[in-house]
Amino acid sequence: MKFPKKARYTKVMQKVSYFFANENISDFPIDPFKIIKRNKWGLISYSELAEIHEMSIPEIIEAFQSKDGYTIYDGINHTIAYNDTIMIPERIRFTLMHEIGHIYMNHLVELEETILRRSKMTESKYRVLENEVNSFARNVLAPAVLVKHLDIKTEAE
Q: What's the Cα-to-Cα distance from 69 to each of 13, 54, 117, rounded to whole Å?
């Protein structure tokens, strides 16, 4: 497949709809750990990687070029790695859904350049993919159609 020149937000929303149907989502909040387990994708924390490879967390971050997480595809299975040392559960949740977005958007299957490390991809191409999966994660975790109906109180009220 030819690499997209800009984020394909229509495709993102189609994949979000497919995600809700495919994963039988009927309530919130969505637990990405359960989604990963149900799909039998691999999951490993940065702490586990650091222990296995006798490295520090900063070395894992540098090696995999992400302080939050990444996904690899070996031609058969996807494996998601995430930084479990981040002390903000919502950020970990977003990171995992972001990585699930890469899987649902088929970034690691359809786009040959994604098989290579991020440093081999131009910044503009990287941004296109990141914009797509950030939109995917945002629309899965907090769908605008639901959020607009919430009675949210601000601190000023």
A: 23, 19, 13
* Helix (H) or strand (E) segment spanning residue 94: helix 89-104
Token pair belonging to 134: 């950030």
Task: Say what the pLDDT of residue 63 is.
Answer: 92
pLDDT of residue 146: 72
Supply the DSSP symbol for 2. P
Q: Give one DSSP letter per residue of 9-35, joined into a string.
A: HHHHHHHHHHHHHHTT--SSS--HHHH
Identity at 119, one-letter amino acid code: S
Map out the domains of the chain as residue ranges: 31-143
The radius of gyration of the chain from alpha carbons, rounded to an integer in Å, stands at 16
pLDDT at 144: 79
Which of the 8 DSSP states describes residue 1? -
**Total Cβ atoms within 10 A of residue 44:** 13
* Cα–Cα dist 83/69, whole Å: 6
CA distance 75 to 49: 21
For residue 65, what are its two tokens?
């070029």
CB atoms within 10 A of CB 149: 7
Local structure of 85: helix, strand or coil: coil
pTM, full prediction:
0.90
